[in-house]
Predict the structure.
Amino acid sequence: MQTSSTTDRDTGAPQAPPLRLSRTFHARRETVFKAWSSAEHVKRWFSPEIYTAPEARVDMREGGPFEICMRAPDGVEHWSRGTFVEVTPHSRLVIDFHTTDAAGAPLFRAYTEVDFSDVLGGTRMDVVQTYIFADPARAAPMVAGASEGWRTTLDKLPAEVTRMQGGSGVETRSVVHAIFHLERTYDAPVARVWRALTDEAAKQQWFGGAPGDWEPLERHMDVRPGGHERLKGRWDGGLTTTFDATYHDVVANERLVYSYEMHLDDKKISVSLATMQLKARGGKTTLMVTEQGAFLDGYDDAGSREQGTSQMLDALGASLRN
């Protein structure tokens, strides 16, 4: 990161250019937001790659503390002390960090804005950190390493989000059942919607993660009774998701019935039965989707599957307009 100074128009203090980072997580906004909400969560991920975080104080409210101790491999501890300036549930956090030296002398402020938004297949988190120097000579070298520190810190967050959902580090054996029904009406004939659901090239236009946030690793489909479909991809945080489906009933232009398993990395998190029905309405098509899911061994879906399917159906509609 460059550290050429500009001037803060309020204080006149020299500062470095803002740092900007974005990550996408295969989880609901509520879950990603919650990962910032307590010391229990924060200690598992809010530290650079080779550091640990043995202590933290987090009170997610305006004026509440966000303080964490980062311990280096040599045992030296570095405290990052901030205060929540803004807390908008599930959408935005602002934390004002003040960094001092061992004697308590101020070095710099790091005004940190975190925004959470829904994207195809998950949640996008955007971080903007603005620096205001109190001691430029000592602060500039520290801020120069902020980009790498944030990168390796955010590399840890997907594991905590997955753990929070029950996708890893959970030894319980359990099954939780859920069902949902969704409908969309598309301004397209049945045959075109059917092709978007059953042709591999057409389905690739809408079924998957958002470009730039998700890298497809494996994709193939064979839509016939007894046929299989597999889609595997890696999110930018490193988490791998796998969709493995088997088709049981295929009636052209009318109905698809299939079952599928979902995996987060190597862990099976669910088994589901899905039905898609198509009805012609003039020159338009109504698509009705019903899904019954069994969520396994502590995985907390919390409506994520329904939300993700809804986003996919919206993406399907967008592909039909192209």
Residues 25 and 310 are 17 Å apart (CA to CA). The radius of gyration is 23 Å. The helical segments are 29-34, 39-45, 136-144, 146-164, 190-198, 200-203, 304-321. Residues 146-164 form the longest helix (19 residues).
